[in-house]
Specification:
The chain has helices spanning about 5-10, 15-40, 40-60, 70-75. By secondary structure, the chain is an all-alpha fold.
Length: about 80
């Protein structure tokens, strides 16, 4: 299991696919539960999960590391 710092470094690299896979494994279910709790719509919650990871991938270089990466992903989802 990758540590937070090395995971973040890999995610911000030019080839983030492996790190994105690890992040998805760790955070997809909790983000889905967050979205489902807020929206009460399973399909919309699934869409939020996809949109969250797409936004994170697109804007990964903007993550400053002032919080944990999971916190950042939850904030994107919210």
């Amino acid at each position: 299991m990758l540590e937070e710092a090395s995971l973040l470094e890999a995610f911000k690299s030019d080839e983030p696919s492996q790190a994105l896979s690890v992040l998805f494994e760790r955070y997809a279910d909790p983000i889905y539960r967050l979205a489902l709790g807020l929206l009460r719509d399973p399909q919309a919650a699934e869409d939020i999960v996809q949109e969250t990871f797409l936004a994170a991938l697109t804007h990964r270089h903007q993550f400053e590391g002032r919080s944990k990466i999971g916190t950042w992903l939850y904030r994107i989802a919210y």
